[in-house]
User: Which sequence fits this backbone?
Protein backbone atom coordinates (compact mmCIF):
# COMPACT_ATOMS: atom_id res chain seq x y z
CA UNK A 1 0.00 0.00 0.00
CA UNK A 2 1.52 3.39 -0.93
CA UNK A 3 2.61 5.36 2.16
CA UNK A 4 0.60 8.48 1.22
CA UNK A 5 -2.69 6.62 0.70
CA UNK A 6 -5.35 8.09 2.91
CA UNK A 7 -8.30 6.08 1.69
CA UNK A 8 -8.97 2.46 0.89
CA UNK A 9 -11.78 0.81 -1.07
CA UNK A 10 -13.96 -1.81 0.60
CA UNK A 11 -15.52 -4.04 -2.06
CA UNK A 12 -18.40 -5.56 -0.15
CA UNK A 13 -20.66 -8.47 -1.04
CA UNK A 14 -24.30 -7.38 -0.99
CA UNK A 15 -27.34 -9.59 -1.10
CA UNK A 16 -30.75 -9.16 0.41
CA UNK A 17 -32.75 -12.31 -0.42
CA UNK A 18 -35.96 -10.38 0.19
CA UNK A 19 -35.18 -7.81 -2.52
CA UNK A 20 -32.33 -8.95 -4.76
CA UNK A 21 -32.51 -11.58 -7.48
CA UNK A 22 -28.76 -12.15 -7.23
CA UNK A 23 -25.79 -10.88 -5.22
CA UNK A 24 -23.66 -7.94 -6.32
CA UNK A 25 -20.55 -6.09 -5.14
CA UNK A 26 -20.64 -2.57 -3.80
CA UNK A 27 -17.60 -0.35 -3.37
CA UNK A 28 -17.13 2.15 -0.54
CA UNK A 29 -14.24 4.52 0.11
CA UNK A 30 -13.07 4.43 3.71
CA UNK A 31 -10.72 6.97 5.27
CA UNK A 32 -7.57 5.38 6.65
CA UNK A 33 -6.46 6.10 10.18
CA UNK A 34 -3.88 4.41 12.40
CA UNK A 35 -5.20 1.19 13.87
CA UNK A 36 -8.20 0.94 11.53
CA UNK A 37 -9.58 -2.60 11.54
CA UNK A 38 -11.87 -4.00 8.88
CA UNK A 39 -14.68 -3.99 11.42
CA UNK A 40 -14.13 -0.30 12.22
CA UNK A 41 -14.15 0.41 8.48
CA UNK A 42 -17.48 -1.40 8.11
CA UNK A 43 -18.87 0.58 11.06
CA UNK A 44 -17.76 3.82 9.37
CA UNK A 45 -19.68 2.76 6.26
CA UNK A 46 -22.72 1.85 8.33
CA UNK A 47 -22.66 5.15 10.26
CA UNK A 48 -21.81 7.56 7.44
CA UNK A 49 -22.52 6.00 4.05
CA UNK A 50 -24.98 3.13 4.03
CA UNK A 51 -27.17 2.16 6.95
CA UNK A 52 -28.51 -0.84 5.06
CA UNK A 53 -25.26 -2.84 5.22
CA UNK A 54 -25.64 -5.93 7.41
CA UNK A 55 -22.82 -7.63 9.34
CA UNK A 56 -22.35 -9.16 12.78
CA UNK A 57 -20.11 -8.04 15.59
CA UNK A 58 -20.17 -7.83 19.35
CA UNK A 59 -16.98 -7.58 21.43
CA UNK A 60 -14.76 -5.75 18.89
CA UNK A 61 -11.79 -7.36 20.60
CA UNK A 62 -11.41 -10.93 19.21
CA UNK A 63 -13.25 -12.42 22.16
CA UNK A 64 -16.68 -13.44 20.85
CA UNK A 65 -15.83 -14.82 17.38
CA UNK A 66 -18.96 -13.38 15.79
CA UNK A 67 -17.37 -11.09 13.20
CA UNK A 68 -15.96 -13.96 11.09
CA UNK A 69 -15.92 -13.04 7.37
CA UNK A 70 -14.05 -13.77 4.18
CA UNK A 71 -11.61 -10.88 3.93
CA UNK A 72 -9.14 -10.49 1.08
CA UNK A 73 -9.55 -14.14 0.16
CA UNK A 74 -9.05 -15.59 3.64
CA UNK A 75 -11.44 -16.32 6.51
CA UNK A 76 -10.61 -13.82 9.27
CA UNK A 77 -12.12 -11.93 12.18
CA UNK A 78 -13.02 -8.42 10.99
CA UNK A 79 -12.18 -6.84 14.36
CA UNK A 80 -8.74 -8.43 14.43
CA UNK A 81 -7.78 -7.64 10.85
CA UNK A 82 -5.84 -4.42 10.45
CA UNK A 83 -6.53 -2.69 7.14
CA UNK A 84 -2.91 -1.49 6.86
CA UNK A 85 -1.57 -5.02 7.27
CA UNK A 86 -3.55 -6.23 4.24
CA UNK A 87 -1.46 -3.87 2.07
CA UNK A 88 -4.16 -3.45 -0.60
CA UNK A 89 -5.90 -0.50 -2.19
CA UNK A 90 -9.07 -2.55 -2.53
CA UNK A 91 -10.20 -5.07 0.10
CA UNK A 92 -12.77 -7.68 -0.82
CA UNK A 93 -15.16 -8.57 1.98
CA UNK A 94 -17.61 -11.46 1.62
CA UNK A 95 -19.62 -13.68 3.95
CA UNK A 96 -18.19 -16.96 5.22
CA UNK A 97 -18.56 -19.49 2.38
CA UNK A 98 -20.64 -22.64 2.55
CA UNK A 99 -23.44 -21.24 4.71
CA UNK A 100 -26.82 -19.79 3.71
CA UNK A 101 -26.80 -16.00 3.44
CA UNK A 102 -29.29 -14.13 5.59
CA UNK A 103 -28.24 -10.70 4.35
CA UNK A 104 -24.96 -9.23 3.03
CA UNK A 105 -22.19 -10.48 5.36
CA UNK A 106 -24.53 -12.26 7.77
CA UNK A 107 -24.73 -16.02 7.35
CA UNK A 108 -27.00 -18.56 8.95
CA UNK A 109 -24.76 -20.54 11.35
CA UNK A 110 -27.38 -23.25 11.97
CA UNK A 111 -25.69 -25.88 9.73
CA UNK A 112 -22.39 -25.20 11.51
CA UNK A 113 -23.90 -25.59 14.99
CA UNK A 114 -25.86 -28.67 13.91
CA UNK A 115 -22.50 -30.38 13.36
CA UNK A 116 -21.33 -29.17 16.76
CA UNK A 117 -24.43 -30.72 18.34
CA UNK A 118 -23.70 -34.02 16.58
CA UNK A 119 -20.59 -34.58 18.72
CA UNK A 120 -22.65 -34.09 21.93
CA UNK A 121 -20.67 -31.15 23.36
CA UNK A 122 -21.39 -31.75 27.03
CA UNK A 123 -20.41 -34.26 29.67
CA UNK A 124 -22.22 -37.51 28.99
CA UNK A 125 -24.56 -38.85 31.64
CA UNK A 126 -22.76 -40.37 34.63
CA UNK A 127 -19.45 -38.85 33.53
CA UNK A 128 -19.39 -36.30 36.34
CA UNK A 129 -20.31 -37.38 39.85
CA UNK A 130 -23.36 -35.35 40.76
CA UNK A 131 -22.76 -34.27 44.33
CA UNK A 132 -19.10 -33.53 44.70
CA UNK A 133 -16.49 -31.62 42.80
CA UNK A 134 -14.73 -33.43 40.01
CA UNK A 135 -11.13 -32.41 40.50
CA UNK A 136 -8.38 -32.19 37.92
CA UNK A 137 -4.67 -31.73 38.32
CA UNK A 138 -3.16 -28.65 36.66
CA UNK A 139 -1.61 -31.01 34.12
CA UNK A 140 -4.98 -32.59 33.28
CA UNK A 141 -6.48 -29.12 32.86
CA UNK A 142 -3.62 -28.02 30.61
CA UNK A 143 -4.26 -31.00 28.32
CA UNK A 144 -7.58 -29.51 27.21
CA UNK A 145 -6.94 -25.77 27.64
CA UNK A 146 -6.26 -25.19 23.94
CA UNK A 147 -9.49 -26.89 22.91
CA UNK A 148 -11.61 -25.07 25.47
CA UNK A 149 -10.25 -21.84 23.97
CA UNK A 150 -12.07 -22.53 20.69
CA UNK A 151 -14.92 -20.00 20.59
CA UNK A 152 -16.68 -21.54 17.59
CA UNK A 153 -16.11 -18.68 15.17
CA UNK A 154 -16.27 -21.04 12.17
CA UNK A 155 -13.13 -19.70 10.45
CA UNK A 156 -11.48 -23.13 10.33
CA UNK A 157 -14.62 -24.66 8.84
CA UNK A 158 -14.69 -21.93 6.18
CA UNK A 159 -11.01 -22.53 5.35
CA UNK A 160 -11.34 -26.32 5.03
CA UNK A 161 -11.51 -27.57 1.41
CA UNK A 162 -13.06 -30.86 2.52
CA UNK A 163 -15.89 -29.06 4.32
CA UNK A 164 -16.35 -26.89 1.21
CA UNK A 165 -16.91 -29.88 -1.04
CA UNK A 166 -18.69 -32.20 1.39
CA UNK A 167 -21.46 -30.47 3.29
CA UNK A 168 -21.87 -33.50 5.56
CA UNK A 169 -18.27 -33.54 6.82
CA UNK A 170 -18.23 -32.68 10.54
CA UNK A 171 -15.37 -30.29 9.97
CA UNK A 172 -12.48 -29.08 12.12
CA UNK A 173 -14.48 -27.07 14.70
CA UNK A 174 -16.84 -29.90 15.67
CA UNK A 175 -13.93 -32.35 15.73
CA UNK A 176 -11.91 -30.04 17.98
CA UNK A 177 -14.78 -30.10 20.44
CA UNK A 178 -15.08 -33.89 20.19
CA UNK A 179 -11.42 -34.08 21.20
CA UNK A 180 -11.94 -31.48 23.92
CA UNK A 181 -14.13 -34.02 25.78
CA UNK A 182 -11.91 -37.00 24.97
CA UNK A 183 -8.97 -35.08 26.44
CA UNK A 184 -10.99 -34.23 29.56
CA UNK A 185 -10.07 -36.50 32.47
CA UNK A 186 -13.61 -36.08 33.88
CA UNK A 187 -15.48 -37.44 30.86
CA UNK A 188 -14.35 -41.05 30.51
CA UNK A 189 -16.49 -41.88 27.46
CA UNK A 190 -13.72 -42.14 24.91
CA UNK A 191 -15.24 -45.02 22.91
CA UNK A 192 -18.65 -43.37 22.63
CA UNK A 193 -17.04 -40.08 21.63
CA UNK A 194 -14.75 -41.72 19.08
CA UNK A 195 -17.78 -43.47 17.62
CA UNK A 196 -19.42 -40.06 17.11
CA UNK A 197 -16.30 -38.65 15.46
CA UNK A 198 -15.48 -41.73 13.38
CA UNK A 199 -18.60 -41.95 11.21
CA UNK A 200 -18.59 -41.71 7.44
CA UNK A 201 -18.59 -37.91 7.67
CA UNK A 202 -16.07 -37.75 10.48
CA UNK A 203 -12.38 -37.52 11.11
CA UNK A 204 -11.09 -39.87 8.39
CA UNK A 205 -12.31 -37.32 5.83
CA UNK A 206 -9.63 -34.90 7.04
CA UNK A 207 -6.85 -34.68 4.43
CA UNK A 208 -4.40 -32.98 6.82
CA UNK A 209 -4.24 -29.77 4.81
CA UNK A 210 -3.61 -27.48 7.83
CA UNK A 211 -5.70 -24.53 6.53
CA UNK A 212 -7.66 -24.73 9.78
CA UNK A 213 -4.50 -24.26 11.83
CA UNK A 214 -3.43 -21.25 9.79
CA UNK A 215 -6.67 -19.29 10.17
CA UNK A 216 -7.56 -20.03 13.80
CA UNK A 217 -7.49 -16.76 15.77
CA UNK A 218 -7.23 -18.61 19.10
CA UNK A 219 -4.14 -20.64 18.36
CA UNK A 220 -6.09 -23.91 18.37
CA UNK A 221 -4.63 -26.74 16.29
CA UNK A 222 -7.61 -28.70 14.90
CA UNK A 223 -5.33 -30.93 12.81
CA UNK A 224 -3.52 -32.10 15.94
CA UNK A 225 -6.85 -32.91 17.64
CA UNK A 226 -7.99 -34.88 14.57
CA UNK A 227 -4.69 -36.76 14.30
CA UNK A 228 -4.81 -37.63 18.01
CA UNK A 229 -8.31 -39.08 17.60
CA UNK A 230 -7.18 -41.10 14.57
CA UNK A 231 -4.25 -42.43 16.59
CA UNK A 232 -6.51 -43.28 19.53
CA UNK A 233 -9.03 -45.03 17.28
CA UNK A 234 -6.35 -47.19 15.64
CA UNK A 235 -4.68 -47.99 18.95
CA UNK A 236 -7.97 -49.01 20.55
CA UNK A 237 -8.85 -51.20 17.60
CA UNK A 238 -5.43 -52.92 17.68
CA UNK A 239 -5.70 -53.38 21.43
CA UNK A 240 -9.08 -55.05 20.93
CA UNK A 241 -10.88 -52.35 22.88
CA UNK A 242 -13.32 -51.61 20.09
CA UNK A 243 -15.13 -53.95 17.72
CA UNK A 244 -14.10 -54.13 14.04
S1 LIG B 1 -10.77 -24.05 16.15
FE1 LIG B 1 -10.25 -21.85 15.96
S2 LIG B 1 -10.98 -21.27 13.91
FE2 LIG B 1 -12.02 -23.19 14.45
S3 LIG B 1 -13.98 -22.57 15.35
FE3 LIG B 1 -12.49 -22.84 17.04
S4 LIG B 1 -11.62 -20.79 17.38
FE4 LIG B 1 -12.63 -20.72 15.37
S1 LIG C 1 -16.47 -8.65 17.26
FE1 LIG C 1 -16.07 -10.26 18.73
S2 LIG C 1 -14.47 -11.37 17.75
FE2 LIG C 1 -14.78 -9.70 16.42
Assistant:
Amino acid sequence: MPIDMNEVTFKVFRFDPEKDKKPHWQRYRVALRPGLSVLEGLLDILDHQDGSLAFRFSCRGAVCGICAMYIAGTPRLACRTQVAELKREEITIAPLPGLPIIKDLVVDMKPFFAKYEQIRPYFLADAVPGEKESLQTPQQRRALAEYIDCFLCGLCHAACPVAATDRRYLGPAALVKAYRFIADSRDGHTDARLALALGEDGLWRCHTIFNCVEVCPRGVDPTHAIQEMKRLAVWRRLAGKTRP
